[in-house]
Amino acid sequence: MAGRSTHFAAPLLLAVVTGLIVYVSLYPFRFVADGPALVDALRSLSWARAGRGDMFNNVLLYVPFGFCVALVIEPRWGRVTGIVVGTLLGVLLSLGLELLQASVAIRVSSLRDLSLNATGSLIGTVLGTAFHALGSRVSPQGTPRSRSAFVAMAILVLWLIERLWPLLPDPGLGQLKRAVRPLLTPQIDWMSLAGFLVGWLVVTQVVFSLVRRQRAMDVLLIVIATVLVGRAFVAGSTLDVAEIAAIALLLPLLVPFSRLDDGTRSTIVAVLLGVWLAWASVRTLLDGAAIPAAGMPELREMLLRNVPPPPLLANKSFSYLALGWLLAGAGIVPHVAAGMTVLFVLLLTLLQLGASAPAYGWVDLLLACLAGWIVARWMPRAAGPR
Fold first, then answer.
1. How far apart (Å, rounded) are the C-alpha atoms in residues 386 and 377?
2. pTM across the whole model
């Protein structure tokens, strides 16, 4: 298989996965001013004990990394090279982050984490080689339809990550009791209800774009069940009454929604998503949560206060990529749709400039630019026939 072209999405996937690993490993980026020297950081590594949850996450986090390295390396240099390089790169990345974690107050560097990360990288590379061996690899160049489907699939994955974070299964009875407890005293926040309804409308449009109409309803119900059951058995998660109410409102809309053409559905959902994002920005100003700061903070503090936790990062990525994808699906030229997405997020960010607790910041602009680049590069100029 050596000498063949790399999978068309592999470099971007590898970059995104690497960025996610760095983000999750170093969050909240509160580095101590007098961190240990490199030699001291190496000496601080020990076989610290870890819970089953941490061990599972350490392996799981690096599986996609090894998989993506295999997608990049194996077609050009062969299977063995892909496995070896993927595992070694995983070890080097993990070692570098473990040393950096020695300067983060709430993080603990550990050789156990390093070994688990290496194991995850190895598993990922093996899965990557199996992916090639089974002949399931997408054409390296990728047709416009396959590239568009990849964007839609990325949106769905981001939604699942946000709803099922921290991706740590807990099948115990205690977790199930915690998950259903909010249902016993239901309280619905109407803002959350609107947000969940818009989010699930986006997911509905994604499913309709990926699956034939005859199967779309079944697949959507499977996705809904996956999220609800998953939140019941993911450590620390609970069932949200507002989300259940939003799904209850969504279900009667599915029949008339499915009868609309794809462009009309994309237009409607894009407008709703844009209105929701704008209202979320304005609401913080109306509630007084984003009052002007007493003075311009230091650059370091300004950067750190705009860093969202991982689930919110996935949510923002989902929103901006979905907005650009929907605008392109509505018939707007992909490059224009990408520019509109970036400009829209820029306006929302400027609206809260100087606020003490802004809902939008430099991370939003970075995510919007990445989403715009993906839409401009991979979305076709006009939707093909279903």
1. 21
2. 0.86
